[in-house]
Amino acid sequence: MNQLITELKKEIILQLNLQGVTPEEIEDNAPLFGDGLGLDSIDVLELIVLLRKKYGIKVNGAEEGKSVFYSVQSMAEFVYANQQQQQQQ
Amino acid sequence: MKYIITRFCRISLDLTLPNSVRIQTHALDEIQNSDFFALYKHAEIDYPKYFKMDSISKYGIIAAEYLLKGIDLKEKYSETDMGIVLSNASGSLDTDAEFQKTINNKVSFFPSPAIFVYTLSNIVMGEICIKYKIKGENMFFLSESVQFELLQSFVSDLFEKESIQTAVVGWVEYSLGKPDVLLLLVEKTDLKDTSEIEFTSHHIESLYLL
Amino acid sequence: MSSRVLITGIGSVSSIGLTIQELTDSILKSDSGVSRKTRLDSILARSLPTAQIQLSDEQLKSRIPGLSCKNVYSRTALLGMLAASEAVAMAGLTQSNCKAAGLVNSTSAGGMDKGEFFYADYLKSPTKGNLKFAQTHDCGDAAEQMAALLHIEQYITTISTACSSAANAMMHGARLIKAGLCDVVVAGGSDAICKFTINGFNSLMILSEEPCKPFDKNRTGLNLGEAAGYFVLESEASVKRRGAKPLAVLSGYGNACDAYHQTASSPNGEGAYLAMMQAINVSGYKPTEIDYINAHGTGTQNNDMSESVALLRIFSENLPPVSSTKAMTGHTLAAAGGIEAVMSVLAIQHGWIFPNKNFNDAIEETGIVPVTELQTNKTIKHILSNSFGFGGNNSSLLISAC
Predict the structure, then answer these.
(1) Rounded distance between C-alpha atoms, residue C217 and residue A77, angstroms
(2) Catalytic pick among C137, C172, C331, C382
(3) Does C80 share its domain with C215?
(4) Is position A8 within any domain?
(5) Element (H, E) at C189
(6) Is residue A42 part of a domain?
(7) Within its chain, how far is the Cα of C108 from the centroid?
(8) Which residues of chain A does C204 touch, with a Cβ-Cβ cutoff of 8 Å?
(9) Do C264 and C385 belong together in one domain?
(10) Residue A38 above 80 pLDDT?
């Protein structure tokens, strides 16, 4: 899980062009939107693309996106759960 | 009442050095590295959203920063008194090609919303408005080359009708890696200071040809 | 001499009519052009409702006399030429009138319908791809083609401000006339649907999987469409000289920037509010004199909420009848302001208020209930027509009876 979290942080920085932000600066449980990293609605959409591109996981719209992308931790849990499901299939 | 160009910023590809642009303003004339991060640092902007923008918008923001450096328009004008009239030749073509790449390959098919957002001619104008809180008239024209007469007459008419009290006016073109930008700040004056540059099509052209 | 800007001709092409007569007939039946029929060869267009014109480019071309069979015309240009020709014919402009006229065209997609084919071939190999397709790509190309067809020479320009484009074109036309630079201006906008656009909007997750529901609390997004809509605008002096019969007056217009976000509108509808207020102020009429509002009303959560807030800021409890016609025409992007302005003139002429189709329940926070059935035999003197674009570019036109 820790490896996934670190990997996700790097991917988020790359996908969203977060210049000058390092993975160490992103707290696992800090909100990504609003005050946290200050991401906006377009960033959510890019994170949806990221999950499809990198992990083959589909997020069904902005509503589901709100809980999935709350923090890096919630993203990691979502990816992990989907990976488990994919392995079982 | 006269309309004058109180500030300007011209950015064009420098032909003497590789990967360089020439930035000329009312206050400076420099050659700079055209790398977008270097431009950002050199302009001393603190605006992380810049890095999410497409190339045209980045140049628009850099030019606007040099244009308005050291002044706060909001001290003199209300948000709705500030207008912006821009133009270019290729619309958002450079960014259109970037977006097309994300939908070209049927296997690796990942349309990018962050790129698509910039595939409209007027988004560069929207970004400048967001940063400087310009809420007055905003218009974007397309033409093969800079239409000096159109810009001068259109903007002057807005002033005359009192739709605006100041305007950012100009040309923001970017294609095949080459920026071609001219931004002007136009204001009213009733002073008879002969050193002021009157807002005429001839003067716009002179600044473009710098 | 009064300096009113008169509308002497209207022309439109959309999924609910290739001519003004067809549009009129569709309105009387409250038809919608939104369906799952697609001429566009795209997976998305097959799975999502859109409002496409079901004619091929060749079929459109055959309806426009005077075109060269050797030339390639973008679909956007063809739609524009068809609609603008109708407006010019309705106004009774001669070739000599047109020579001295101006053309203010607008588009967002330009020739992308051809350009995207060219580019796909070109990416495979630099020797592939029909160069003529690349030549029609520029946003300004349609204006050049239209001016050539209509013999307009005095003044030609192209505006591109996303979904407010055609409204801005009409506004610019009015200003040219008031400034005495032109006596006659053909103004409006045109956009053809293409894969680039539908894929892009889909990536923003604002396309509805069902026919759109403007102002409904359960709305899930917009339906893309394609269209063209044009006015012939004319000075009073020119109308008198020619003995022309004006259809309506472009009595007010306003444009403002929301300055909030590239694609989302501000929660307090600031840009929309400013644009509408400016249109009302320019007209000299009072908000209480507005008989009907043709809203931008795309059916997205964001626009309809923001626009509702702006409407209530201006009209509060005295909100005139309001509706969005996008459930009939789809969201035709740059052409939206054009076709909706044309429909506004028809509303004034016929005494109509258009239905806001697919509406069931009001947005809870604002409670606006639009008109849901076509209303006839109304006295419509003043209409406010809204068009709000990405980049925060918001425009509003006030169209009045003569």
Answers:
(1) 32
(2) C331
(3) yes
(4) yes
(5) strand C184-191
(6) yes
(7) 11
(8) 42, 45
(9) yes
(10) no
C125 contact partners, CB below 8 Å, separation of at least 6 = none
Instruction: Give the neighbours of chain C: at least 3 Cβ pairs within 8 Å.
Output: A, B
Among partner residues B118, B127, B142, which is closest to C160 by beta-carbon distance?
A: B142
CATH number assigned to the domain comprising residue C375: 3.40.47.10
Inter-chain CB proximity B100 and C119 less than 8 Å: yes
Residues C12 and C70 both lie in one domain: yes
More confident residue, A66 or C311: C311
Count how many domains chain A has: 1
| Stretch B165-191: mean pLDDT | 94
Rounded CA-CA distance C266/C256 in Å is 13
Find the closest chain C residue to B164 by CA distance: C256
C257 annotated active-site: no
**C331 included as an active-site residue:** yes
What domain range includes position A44? Answer: 2-16+32-88
| Residue listed under structure tokens 């807005």 | B158
Domain span holding position C310: 254-400
Residue A26 covered by a domain: no
CATH class, domain B2-92+119-208, is: alpha beta
Cβ–Cβ of B114/A45 closer than 8 Å?
A: yes
C151 is catalytic: no
pLDDT band for position B191 (50/70/90)?
low
* Boundary-marking domain end, from C176, C207, C242: C242
Does any domain span residue C249?
Answer: no
> Along chain C (402 residues), what's the average pLDDT of each consecutive run of 10 residues?
87 98 98 96 95 96 91 96 98 97 97 91 89 91 96 97 98 96 97 97 96 98 98 97 97 98 96 98 97 98 98 97 98 98 98 98 98 97 98 98 97
CB spacing of A53 vs B48 below 8 angstroms: no
Q: Which residues of B touch C116 (CB under 8 A)?
A: 100
Q: Of chain A residues 56-85, which have a CB less than 8 A from chain B? A: none
Confirm if C158 and C111 have CB atoms less than 8 A apart.
Answer: no
Which stretch of DSSP H or E encloses residue C155? strand C155-159
Q: Are B43 and B36 in contact (CB under 8 A)?
A: no
Shared domain check, C209 and C113: yes
Q: Is residue C247 part of a domain?
A: no
Q: Average pLDDT, stretch B168-182?
A: 96
Nearest CA in chain C to B87: C159
Q: How far is B7 from chain C (nearest CA, A)?
A: 22
